[in-house]
Amino acid sequence: MQFRTRAIHVGNEPCPQTGAVVPPIYLASTFVQHEAGVWREFDYSRSGNPTRSCFEETIAHLEGGYGAMAFGTGMAATSCVMAMLKSGDHVLAGSDIYGGTYRLLHKISNRAGIETTLADSTNLKAFAAAIKRNTKLVWIESPGNPQMSITDIAACAKIAHDAGALLGIDSTFATPVLTRPIELGADIVMHSATKYIGGHSDVMGGVLVANTEQLYKDLYFVANATGGIMSPFESYLCSRGLKTLELRVREQSKTAMLLAEWLESHPRVTKVRYPGLKSNPGHELASRQMDGGFGAMMSFDIDGDFNETKRVVGATKLFRLAVSLGAVESLIEQPASMSHASYDAADRAKHGITDGMIRLSVGLEAFEDLRDDLAQAIG
Ligand SMILES: *Cc1c(COP(=O)(O)O)cnc(C)c1O
C-alpha cells in the first residue's frame, strides 16, 4: 500500500466494541488484570497505553522501522537516546543541528561524562575523521537547522557502523514523506512530533523509531524507566496529524519551492538556503535522498544588520513571528535571537548563523499571499 493509505489505515482499526471509525482515546492510567502476576497487553500507562500504541504503530510502519516510542516532547525523545550512553562515551554530531540538541549535549550530557564533538556532516571526510575510539553515537539532521544542509545518510551510516557506533537522525524537517532514514541504514529516527506530525501548532510530542527489536527494547527500557511518555490526548492528535501528513508536506514543499525561487531573485536577499534550488550545494544529493520534494523550511540572508533583520521578521502579517515550524500557518523568525539563541555566540558565528539570517516555515496558505507578505516586509 502507498504511504498515504498506510498513514490512514495502519494503527487505526475501528473500535471492536462500538465500531467507532476513529479509535477512542484511552485516558486510563491503569488496567485491570485477570490474575496476579499475569499481565495483559496493558497494565500501566507509563509502560504502554492503547492510544499511544496506535500512533506508535503507524509511525513505525511509515518509517519502515521495527517499533516506535512516543514522548511528551521531541527533546524527551532525544534525551532517551542520550540516556543510553554512559560516562566515557563520545557523541559525534553534525554541526547544523537543532539548538536544543546542542544544549542537551553541551550542558546536560557533559555532566554525566559524555563528550561531544560537532563536525560538518556534509563534509564526509572531515566527519569521519572526527570519529573517536569511544564514539558510540553519531547524530545528524538532514535537512539541517538552520543552514538546510543536506547530509548523506547512507554514508553516515557506514561511518558510524565502521566505528561500532549507532546512527541516530533527527528527521523532523524531512518527515517520513520525504526521507526514510532506516531504509538508508540509520538505526534510530527521531521526530519532534510538535512540528509536521502534529501539523497544526497545537500539540507537543516526540517520537523515536528503532530499526531492530534489540534496539527498540533498549530504548523502551530507558523510556519506561525515565517516564517522558506522550499523553493519550497528544497521541490522538498525532495519529490524526499523520493522516494528512503527506498531503500537507507535499503542498507546503511546492509553495516553499516557489518562494525560494522568488526570494533568490529579490534584490535585497543575499543568500537563500533551500535544498530545492539548483544553487544549493546539497541539491543533487537531496534530489536522490528526498522523495519528490525538498521540504517547507528555508532560511535566507538580507543585506541588513541585526536590527534591520529584526524589523523585517516583525513586519510580516501572515507569517507569524514565532519559533517552531511545520504547521499549516507560516512562521518567520531570526535564528540569532530566537531558535539558536542557546548556541554560544562564537559557535553561532562558526556555524554560519548570521545576524541577517531569517528562517521561514512555509505553511498551507497560497503562494501569492505569502510572497506579497514577504515583499511588503522586506521592502
Ligand atoms: C523542535 C525541534 C526539536 C525539539 O522538539 P520539541 O518537541 O520542541 O522538544 C528537535 N529537533 C528539531 C529539528 C526541531 O525542530
Structure description:
By secondary structure, the chain is of the alpha/beta class. The protein folds into 2 domains: 241 residues, 3-Layer(aba) Sandwich (Aspartate Aminotransferase, domain 2), CATH 3.40.640.10; 134 residues, Aspartate Aminotransferase, domain 1. It has 14 helices and 12 strands. The protein has a 7-stranded mixed beta sheet with strand order 1-7-6-5-4-2-3, with helices on both faces. Strands 8-9-12-11-10 form a 5-stranded mixed beta sheet, covered by helices on one side. The radius of gyration is 21 Å and the shape is globular. It starts with a helix and ends with a helix. The relative contact order is 0.13. The site of pyridoxal-5'-phosphate has 16 residues, from helix 3.
Q: In angstroms, what separates the terminal alpha carbons?
A: 48 Å
DSSP strand tally: 12
Estimated radius of gyration: 21 Å
Q: Which descriptor suits the 3D outline?
A: globular
Number of domains: 2
Uncertain spans, ≥5 residues at pLDDT below 50?
none
Mean pLDDT: 96
CATH class of the largest domain: Alpha Beta
Here the CATH topology of the largest domain equals Aspartate Aminotransferase, domain 2
Bound molecules: pyridoxal-5'-phosphate
